[in-house]
Amino acid sequence: MAILLSLPILGLLLLVQTTIVSRIPLLHGTADLILLALMAWALQKRNKSSWHWAIVGGALVSIASGLPLGIPLLGYGLANGMALVVRRFIWQVPILAMFVVTILGTIITHIVSIVALSLMGVTIPLSQALISITLPSGVLNLLAALPAYAILTDIARWLYPETIQV
Amino acid sequence: MNTTSRNLQTIVFVLIGIGLIALALGGYLTPLSRIIVNPFVGAQTWISERYQAMVSLLTAPQDVLRLRQRNLELEAEVSRLQAQIIELQQRLSETNILSALVDFARANPENQYQAAAVIARDPSPFLQYVIINRGSDDGLQRGMPVVTQQGLVGRIAAVTAGAARVQMITDPASSVNVRIEPSKAQAVLSGQLSGDIFLEMIPQGASVNAGDLVLTSGLGGGYPPNILIGQVTGIRSRDQDLFQRGTVQPVVDFSNLEIVLVITNFKPIDINPLIPTPGAP
Prior knowledge:
A: Arp2/3 complex 21 kDa subunit ARPC3, B: 6-stranded antiparallel barrel, 6-stranded antiparallel beta barrel
């Protein structure tokens, strides 16, 4: 069920991302709704489908983006792995974990993009990328992290209701 | 006797009546009637006002309900009209853009155009791509140049049946062979991560100044010649460099692209097989 649900949710987020969010930059950075959804989903305790979600999200963005095929998949995959590790260490304060994985996820996906574009021969000045894209994107992602976490937590509760032992 | 006196009384009454009517018609009874009628009218007014007040009190809730309903209807009407105004303004804006594009197409009759709306942007902030709502079903192919009435936007990088991805000239991976007017110097225009565009490879001897126009040169076969790109805003020339560099102010506002034209009769030429590679005979 959770795997099936990933397609409409991430598809809708991609739609909003490409039509609205990508048109609202801070300097040259934009929020990444797919990344936020994946990070929030990976932090859900009872969830076991975060890898599937990362693959679906990566595949969808690969189709929509001009980045080399598979690069978003790699970026989101690495970010998802990092989020699962963070969940193990900061499991008692999920909000803090969400902020941490948002920042780290932004950095990971951007590093993967920069490396891929550099390998393709595109000149990417690192300081400019950091100041005008990665940092503003991180700020926007942090702003959207809390609502994203709240919505994904509600979906997780609906999908995996808590069992009470009597 | 009784009959005679009764008749007499009747006649007297009739005469008094006629007399009173005659006096009233003559206006002689007006002060008297005022004295009698005024209190009556006053009483009438008082009673009528109380009655109206009572009626209002009893019927007021119905009126308020009706007024509220009417108010809601009018508010809905206002909202509908406001939405209509916004829609009409949007249509007017689109019509203005389309009109300018038609003018541009008429001014350049050598090209065939396909108009397309910009529907999305690339999700990656590292890339300057837009997605348009026309694809291979409309005859679009990879490499076709994309323009607006102002100037060059970029070229199609990928096509699906119903949509195409356009690489704008501001993309860091984009490079366009250009000519600078009036000096006719050749240069290469490159996009940057910041969305700005720069001139590179300007020969040291070329006299290029701020305000010069930058147009496509057509060299390399990637773009048709003579499409306006922008104006030179600054030149950096150092003796130790092989080439001069310059900054360009594009004529197209890349952040507010709505409708673009794809030049469909231009076939890009792939010159890569002609470029000699080391080791090739």
